[in-house]
Write a structure and sequence with these properties.
By secondary structure, the chain is of the alpha/beta class. The chain has 10 helices and 7 strands.
Length: 212
Amino acid sequence: MYIFYNIILSAAAIIILPYFLFKIIFTGKYRKSFIQKFGGRQEKVLADLKEGRRIWIHAVSVGEVTAAAPIVSSLKTKRPELRIIFSTSTETGQEMAHKFIKGADALIYFPLDILPVVNGMIKKVKPDVFVLVETELWPNFLRVCAKRNIQTLMVNGRISPRSYRRYRQTKLFWGRVLDKLTFAGMISGTDARRLKDIGMDVSKISVLGNAK
């Protein structure tokens, strides 16, 4: 299943790449994040991190950053010795993070879910724990974390009706992906039931409410 996923991912990358290059050259869109999504230009930011256990917290865009802000603040207050690396997928999310995420030791872009890129970025960050805010499941990333014994947690998890239908259509694959998650904290009982139905072990699911 992972082989099939990576074949589709590679084909999609080849098709979409010209579009991104066009946008970068002629509109400037994605210019700030394109190289970073391939793991480039991150060494300087990460080189300044002090010693200590590292927690990598990922929020996709603006909405997830809003949910993550109190989590980061509380975590840093209770455990100031922890080194928090915070990532986003979008440039608007990164701008939001620079404004509202207090306590993060480094702000980076989340890598594309391409195995060499994922492996390289995880080696650079060296997280002890990875925390996913809401629900953006990247199979290669979670698989590499599992192989490296990095705990992976989902917080503020939610699954919309549309996403639920899509996940159920490929339940066999997503069940294997969810098996790599250590724990999932969901917003509601409905979200918890949907995650269980997709294939996550119910013993690893809890309803924690909305961090927002």
